[in-house]
Amino acid sequence: MIAYVRVLCLCLGLGLLSACGQLLDTSHTHSYETVYVVDADGANTYQISPDLSYNYGAADWSPDGTQLVYASSDLGDLFVSPVTGDSVVNLTQTDDMSEHSPKWSSNGTYISYYVGSGSSQSLYVRLADGTNPTLILDNVTGYAWSPDETYLAVVSAEKLYLLTVTGVNQGVLTQSIDTSVSVTWLSTTVMRYSYEGTDYLMTTSGTSVALLDTTDPNWTLPETQLAEKVSVDGYYRVSTGGDIQKVLAHGTYAALSDDHNTVISVYQQSVYRHDSDGSNSELLYSTSSGSLGNPILRGATMLFVSGGGVYTGTIASGAVTQIATGLSVALSSDGTKVAYSGFRRVSE
Fold first, then answer.
1. Are 100 and 123 in contact (CB under 8 A)?
2. Could you tell me how far CA 290 lies from the centroid of its own chain?
3. Of the four, 161, 196, 246, 345, which is 20 to 30 A from 171 by CA?
């Protein structure tokens, strides 16, 4: 007997109306992972990836917020489309390679991506128009663009490499690095990486210091900047003078707002808001089941995923609202739009 179900009026909690009240033959339907864009307040949801019988996901915003790059796990290709969702372009069109996890470079000149999977995956870079594919390094487990696009900090075989976009090796910066922890750039010349539970600062010239080395009262940053540090025992803020202040006594993750006035932290399945000095802590959201992702802060907006729900909130007010159901979220540079991977049901 053919099974029938009554269609739910709100598909995936996105506010997308389906044929409410009609009966669909579920034996001839299939769900496809699809890239959507929604305003940060939950309004104006629309589909970005092509309306075809393939899975698309893991979108990343261009720095200017006008385009998205994403991958198809079925086709093994990368796609670029404007935020309006029209004029989709297959960026790679390769038959013998499986490209995935694309990322824009800091200024939008290049798109980096992986080929292959696991510890054997290779890092490639192309120009944003899809031309000039270049192999950067094999067996890559993590990488990060420098803010000026000059370098790629690449982790391979537990070593940290500094390379240019043409794949030229500028040198091995360190022989030991935790491959499970991402490298991040604090400025155009300073990176942060982890080894055996301790975070370090590394300059492009190869000078390394422990970020939490508080035994030396004269310790300073390699160059003037504002930095932040989260460890298992708290959240630390580093002033422009190099002084380290323990802001929060707990937290598995913390992020500083663009205006440096607010810290959003995660601790024991809960999201908190604090002033940047750790005062005025306020519980914003808590869950007793499912995973809780690390918040992303851009402009006036915070974004996180909890149990498959996409949540946003205004940093100033702390109000949190579920705006969608999905995964692989990305927040535009101005904090006004969210890209995420949801599921689209197709009758076949």
1. no
2. 19
3. 196
